[in-house]
Amino acid sequence: MTVIAEPSAGNLAEFGIILQINLMKGAFMAQTTTPCPRCHQQMIADVQQVFDLFQDPAAKERLLSGQVNVAVCPSCGYQSAVGVPVVYHDPEKELFLTYFPSELGLPINEQERILGPMITQVVNRLPPEKKKGYLLRPQSMLTYDTLIEKILEADGITKEMIKDQEKKIALLRRLLTSPEDRIAEIIKQEESLIDQSFFALFSNVQNSAVQSRDEKVLAVLKPIQDALLNQTVYGREVKARAESTQKAIQDIQDLGEQLNRDSLLNLVLNAPDDSYLQTLTGLARNGMDYEFFSKLSARIQAAEGEDNKKYSEIREKLLNLTKKIDQAVAEQMQLRKKVFDEIMKEDDIEQSLLKYARAIDDSFLVIVKTELQNARKNGDFMRSGKIQKILDTVEKMTKPSPEVELLEDLLSKTDEAEVEAAFHENQALVNDEFKAMLGSLIQELSKTQEADPEIIARIRFIQKLTE
Hints:
Blueprint: E1 4-5, H1 9-24, E2 29-35, E3 42-48, E4 50-52, H2 59-65, E5 70-72, E6 79-81, E7 86-90, E8 95-99, H3 108-125, E9 139-141, H4 144-154, H5 159-177, H6 183-189, H7 196-212, H8 215-231, H9 233-255, H10 261-269, H11 274-283, H12 290-302, H13 305-345, H14 349-355, H15 362-377, H16 381-398, H17 402-411, H18 416-425, H19 432-446, H20 453-466
Parallel strand pairs: 1-6, 4-7, 8-9
Antiparallel strand pairs: 2-3, 5-6, 7-8
Helix pairs in contact: 5-7, 6-8, 7-8, 8-9, 9-11, 11-13, 12-13, 13-15, 15-16, 17-18, 19-20
Keywords: Coiled coil
Pfam family, one: CpXC
Organism: Flexilinea flocculi
């Protein structure tokens, strides 16, 4: 079992000396070793002191998730939190925080001397127009918990909300460790805690078990999920929404090539509930254009009594839903435009794209292509050249390896003779990486009940050719 513990007093003195040396050198991403309290083997810790959201938007997520400043023993798996000075900066919320672990035992003047270079580094990275008064008054947090609470508070998460979440985590642990015959009783006693956030916690555990293919955990989760969905008010609502959502998806798929404005309108007017209607809108927003709403208005005018009222209410709901979708798309495009602008400021395009990797999606590429067209239209060849470099770099970074392309080509062929011929034509790509990829694919697909047996058979045929 993995255990996360506080740093022991025995190794803090040694660690503090190493840390001070690294900090004085300006090495704000340091690495240190410390003995494992359990098995006494050396643990290596990657230490990060500066969390500057201006330079690294993902820094907050790493800090809050506990992914940083943790030493892991390679021998027994023991984990120990590493107490290090921290500077946290969120320019959007004008939040500038510092934390210095009291267990390092350094006087205030030494703490300020160590924190000073980190604070200066954060301030110097900002362009002049972003340097504001809050930077002159970094707030000192007395404890690590206070630091985290302050960050969460800026996001609108209060101490009461944190305590409520802790209660839900405790309930989830209790359910996971209780005998199956006690689950219903526990849920009945604690139903007031079972809401959207509790289901989010449960889903995280479930998704983790699915990804790791942990059948034992999945077996424990199944009766808990059934009880939550069938025995709680919120659970029954979740179940009903899920069923409506699935029905909407299935109805769209069943229409196939017959999906048009008229058939979509029939689905909309016969929607059993709002979840069904919301799913249809999300799936077929592009089809809900001016002509679609004209047809809907015509149906309303032709209807009488209750049908007229029902169709009118559906139109209002659709107008609200499409408006929300359009607003969300617009906001997404604005965010991607900000990412594009930040990347354009950088000299190293590849490093900048890696920094904003999570934002590199279809919306981002739409922005890039639009900006490229505008630059060429305006005759700004310097700008268009840099934008073209962004596109070329994204293509290079997302392009599958030659081995993956070969496998995709082989799997697209249905005739074994064609597969064999293409295989022998590309012998140079049949390397250890290609063979390992085949073995891994077969292993993964064999564990998946939904896997297509024909695809598995094709991969096995290709694997035989490598022997």
